[in-house]
Amino acid sequence: MTDHILVTKNLSKEFKGFTAVSAVNLQIQRGHIHALIGPNGAGKTTVFNLLTKFLIPTSGSIHFNGTDITSEKSADIALRGIVRSFQISAVFPNLTPLENVRLALQRKLGVSYHFWKSDSILNQLDARAMELLDAVGLAEFAGEITAELAYGRKRALEIATTLALDPELMLLDEPTQGMGVEDVDKITALVKKVSANRTILMVEHNLKVVATLADRITVLQRGAILAEGAYAEVSQDPQVLEAYMGSAHV
Fold it and tell me: What do you get for the CA distance between the two ends of the chain, in Å?
C-alpha cells in the first residue's frame, strides 16, 4: 500500500456562494515532490490556505499521517510538521540571515523571545543556524543585513528558516516567482537538495521548474482537479493544454 503523508477527501471551500475549491481529493506520497499547478484563479493558493488552516473548509477533510486534522488550528498544524513558505518572502529584513534562522530555531525549541538564555544554548543555535545557511549557500552572507541581499538569496534564506522548523511536509508557495533565469536555476537546485528525507508540496507557475522537480502533478481548474499524473503524461492531456489558453505545449 502506498504511503501517503497527506490526504484530502472532497475538500471544498465556498465564499458567499462562489466555490473556490470543489471536492479536491489529494494524495501526497511520502518522500515525493508534488506540484499543484493551474491557470490563475484555479484555486491553488486557496488549497494551501485550507491545508495550513488559514481558511476553514466548507466541507471535506484533511488527513496527515493518518490523523484527521481538519478541525485543528494553524499552530497545531505547524507543530505536527507541516510548514509553509510564503509566496512573498517572509523574513525579517532588518536582521541578519544568522539572526533570522536562529529565531526560527528558537521557535522550534519553544524558547522564542527568551533572549536571556545562556550563551551555551545560543551558541548551539548559532552552530545549527550556520549549518542551515551553508546548506542553502548563504554561509558567507550570515552577518549581512537581510534587506540588502539579492532577491534570490532572500528566498534561499526563507527556505533555510523553513528548514529550521524541521518540517516533515514543506509547502512551497511559488518559490521562484519574480526571479531571473539564474536565480530560478539556483532555487530549483536548492529545492531538489532540501527534498531529501522530506516531502514537498509546491505551487509553482514555472512549468520548467515543475518538469524538473515534480514526481507527480495535480492540475487545478476552477477549483477542481482537472488532471493528475507525471509531467510527461499531464503535459500531453488535451484538457490541460486547453486550460493553459490553448498553448501548443505545457
Answer: 31
Evaluate whether 227 touches 210 at the Cβ level (below 8 Å). Answer: no
Report how far Cα 69 is from the mean position of its chain's Cα atoms.
18
Quick check: helix, strand or coil at residue 60?
strand
Q: Where does the chain hold its CATH 3.40.50.300 domain(s)?
A: 1-81+170-186+196-250
Task: Decide: helix, strand or coil at residue 157.
Answer: helix
Q: How far apart are CA 6 and CA 50, in angstroms?
A: 13
Distance CA(139)–CA(126), nearest Å, equals 12
Nearest to 13, CA basis, from 70, 72, 63, 67: 70
How many angstroms separate the Cα of 51 from the Cα of each of 19, 85, 94, 113, 174?
17, 13, 30, 28, 16
What are the pLDDT digits (tens) for 78-97?
889 999 886 566 789 999 99
Give the number of other CB atoms < 10 A from CB of residue 51: 26
Residue pointed to by grid coordinates 506540484 = 35
What percent of the chain clears pLDDT 90, i.e. is strictly above it? 60
Q: What is the pLDDT of residues 161-215, one digit of tens each?
A: 999 888 999 999 999 988 888 899 999 999 999 998 899 999 998 889 999 999 9
**C-beta separation of 169 from 199 below 8 A:** yes
CA-closest candidate to residue 12, choices 24, 26, 1, 27 = 24
d(CA 199, CA 18): 32
Collapsed DSSP state (helix, strand, coil) of residue 77: helix
Architecture of domain 1-81+170-186+196-250: 3-Layer(aba) Sandwich (3.40)
At 22 the three-state DSSP class reads strand
